[in-house]
Design a protein that fits this description.
about 50% helix, alpha+beta
Length: about 375
């Protein structure tokens, strides 16, 4: 390799000064740890924010245009369901009810719950059962409880456990698992659409969403246009997830707070690594001057400094990722902890580290290129 010799010298200069090398690593590692921790928490919040969409699994959702998140449904009249079912390109469409209420447990305590009412005929969107038989949901007063992080808030019910819901008796006939836990820390119960609308206080309209299965993907645009003419909104699952994420990112304080913490983490890493790298360059000026004196060109010294900064940044990046992964793994023993690491988080942290390395390198390069060999030897 053309520059292997000069790069080897740079690597030895870097690692031989152990105190500066470790200071650089600590600065970048701490910065990556903070950035990844903040963005992982935000990714976990968003993942739970659209957990309803993920768990139901419908291809398309029809809703009122004023809906911001899956749990803030605006009821629609029954004629919308009939209209959607008659549209060209629709294979089938079913209603979905989502509402909240209080249940009275056997202990006498009250607990808020989310109630999801599934289409009576198809039970489309039903969860996978860990215990029980899905057909039991058609019996009187029956509900299925989700076994997630909030399960214990219902006093860990078993099949046959009863409770009181708006002066109605409810009985657990199934325990289910879902792909994603909810965001609001509230247990979830599933039942039939007719029972949900009967047991829970509702407005004049009762349809929270209409779940649509198009005949094929080519029909999606046509269905959207037909729903828009009705004065309502149709979105695919991914579009609904993205709209929910945008709402939490731009229309609540969550996105701003996370962004601020990421910027602070970046500034901390930049200040520590930049200052330490600059000090390292100052303490080794005579060595760079000596390299110039024996014929090293400015371009070679630039490559050497870039190499030193890149090696430090990548090692610090790896240590930071490893540390945050360990911390999240430990923290997730608590099922309420929502942080997740995504490829987007990893990519963003890597870009930030490269910027830190680039700025640190620029500070060092400016100083080294100004060195005159005769000044070193004269001193």
């Amino acid at each position: 390799m053309k520059y292997s010799g000069i790069l080897r010298i740079g690597f030895k200069l870097l690692v031989n000064d152990k105190s500066k090398f470790f200071a650089l690593l600590i600065g970048i590692t701490f910065s990556v740890f903070l950035m990844m921790q903040m963005t992982a928490m935000f990714a976990g919040i968003l993942n739970r924010a659209y957990s309803t969409v993920t768990n139901i699994g419908a291809s398309m959702w029809v809703m009122d245009p004023g809906v911001n998140t899956p749990t803030s449904a605006i009821p629609m009249p029954d004629y919308v369901l009939d209209a959607v079912r008659s549209m060209d390109g629709v294979n089938y469409a079913v209603p979905l009810f989502i509402g909240g209420t209080l249940v009275k447990l056997n202990s006498g305590n009250y607990q808020s719950v989310n109630v999801v009412g599934l289409d009576d005929q198809s039970l489309f969107g039903r969860p996978e059962l860990e215990q029980g038989n899905i057909q039991d949901i058609y019996a009187d007063n029956t509900f299925i409880v989700v076994h997630d992080a909030e399960f214990k808030k219902l006093e860990s019910p078993k099949i046959g456990t009863s409770f009181e819901l708006n002066d109605h008796r409810g009985t657990i006939v199934g325990i289910a698992k879902v792909a994603s836990n909810g965001l609001n820390g509230v247990p979830t119960l599933y039942t039939t659409y007719s029972r949900a609308t009967e047991y829970l206080p509702t407005t004049r309209f009762t349809i929270s969403y209409i779940l649509v299965q198009p005949k094929n993907n080519a029909e999606v645009a046509s269905i959207k246009a037909q729903v828009t003419k009705l004065g309502y909104l149709a979105m695919t699952k991914d579009e609904f997830n993205k709209a929910t994420a945008n709402y939490y990112t731009y229309k609540t304080g969550i996105g701003t707070n996370i962004l601020l913490m990421v910027v602070i983490s970046f500034i901390i890493g930049l200040s520590i690594s930049g200052q330490t790298f600059y000090t390292f360059i100052l303490e080794n000026l005579e060595k760079f001057g000596a390299l110039k004196a024996i014929g090293a060109k400015g371009r070679e010294l630039i490559y050497m400094i870039l190499f030193m900064a890149t090696v430090t940044a990548l090692i610090g990046y790896g240590l930071g990722i490893g540390l945050v992964t360990l911390m999240i793994t430990i923290a997730r023993t608590n099922p309420n902890y929502a942080a997740i690491i995504t490829f987007q988080n990893l990519g963003m942290a890597l870009v930030m580290v490269i910027i830190i390395a680039g700025i640190s390198s620029y500070i060092g390069i400016r100083k080294v290129l100004k060195i005159e060999p005769f000044d070193i030897f004269r001193g």
